UniProtKB/TrEMBL annotation:
InterPro entries: GntR_C (IPR011711), TF_FadR/GntR_C (IPR008920), Tscrpt_reg_HTH_GntR (IPR000524), WH-like_DNA-bd_sf (IPR036388), WH_DNA-bd_sf (IPR036390). SMART domains: FCD, HTH_GNTR. GO terms for molecular function: DNA binding; DNA-binding transcription factor activity. Pfam families: FCD, GntR. This is Transcriptional regulator, GntR family. It comes from the Bacteria. SUPFAM superfamilies: GntR ligand-binding domain-like, Winged helix' DNA-binding domain. Keywords: DNA-binding, Transcription, Transcription regulation. It comes from Chromohalobacter israelensis (strain ATCC BAA-138 / DSM 3043 / CIP 106854 / NCIMB 13768 / 1H11). Residues 8-75 form the HTH gntR-type domain.
């Protein structure tokens, strides 16, 4: 007798879909999240939506307003600068440890992910470009970080990345649809990979900080135009 397919976790479905929409700007910072609208948009009941909202409150993407429901968390230049500076500092430490601890398999993983990222220009559908480039870009940086061999640092890294994701999306929309911007990023990734493989820690760490901080002026400009 064939067992029935497991019932999907509706709260997880609600969480993933709502989080994606918040990150992609479907809901503006500060916008009230009305339960009637959420139920209709995601075709889910109150229970799963409340669970999703509670989880997103914990991730600071949503704020709970006493007796008034939920709103999308605000965004600010101050938070942008603080998050990106913290990310750059932590990523530099993780990179330094990875260079000291990573072996041949670690190097091979970086080269493979860098190659996959460089080929994104071959994705011709504008609809797919954002998802493909972002996924491969994250995979490249995760391959670098993996060599640090510190679960706690990697957990902190993931938390900071998630906190910055709404800001990153503003930058992505200005980058992945520009051939010139993509080419510049491709050169940055190639130079960073070379420095890492050469085990040149000071150069690689300086490159990583510059690479991570370079989106900040672009994001600021986008935010100020809103």
């Amino acid at each position: 007798m064939t067992s029935a397919s497991p019932r999907p976790n509706l709260a997880i479905t609600a969480y993933r879909q709502l989080k994606r929409d918040i990150i992609r700007g479907v809901y503006a910072p500060g916008e009230k999240l009305r339960m009637s609208h959420l139920k209709e948009r995601y075709a889910l009941g109150v229970g799963p939506m409340r669970e999703a909202l509670s989880q997103l409150v914990g991730e600071r993407l949503v704020t709970a307003v006493s007796q008034r429901g939920y709103r999308v968390a605000e965004m600010s230049i101050e938070e942008l600068e603080s998050l990106y500076d913290a990310r750059a500092e932590l990523e530099g430490l993780v990179l330094e440890l990875a260079i000291a601890r990573g072996g041949d398999d670690w190097e091979a993983g970086i080269v493979a992910k860098a190659h996959a990222l460089a080929k994104v220009a071959e994705v011709h559908s504008a609809e797919d470009m954002l998802d493909v480039w972002d996924t491969r870009h994250q995979a490249f940086h995760s391959a670098i970080a993996a060599g640090c061999d510190s679960p706690h640092l990697l957990q902190a890294r993931t938390w900071l990345f998630d906190q910055a994701e709404r800001y990153r999306h503003l930058w992505l929309c200005q980058t992945v649809f520009s051939a010139e911007a993509l080419d510049a990023k491709r050169r940055e990734h190639a130079a960073l990979t070379d420095a890492i493989l050469a085990r040149d820690t000071p150069t690689a760490r300086a490159m990583m900080r510059e690479h991570l901080m370079s989106p900040v002026p672009i994001i600021k400009e986008v935010m100020q135009q809103r």
